[in-house]
Design goal:
single chain; 76 residues; 4 helices; flat
Length: 76
């Protein structure tokens, strides 16, 4: 019995594995269809999705908490 490496997810963090399962092509098609990147200032839509998902998986309750690292990491 060998390792199942067909998914190419071996050795990657869980968050990265979840992100790789998202259909990027479909997401980009929706962004183009609805023009959500038309007036972007800081993040493209994909970057914002990734940041928001990280906040959700980190159990952040507010944007302030998210900015401060959800209380897990203290600024020194």
């Amino acid at each position: 019995m060998g390792k199942d490496t067909t998914k190419n997810l071996v050795g990657q963090p869980i968050f990265k594995q979840i992100i790789k399962m998202l259909p990027r092509e479909q997401f980009d098609m929706l962004v183009k269809t609805y023009g959500s990147d038309r007036y972007y200032k800081t993040f493209f839509s994909w970057d914002e999705l990734i940041v928001m998902l990280f906040g959700i998986f980190s159990h952040c309750d507010s944007m302030g908490e998210f900015v401060m690292g959800c209380g897990r990491y203290q600024a020194s």
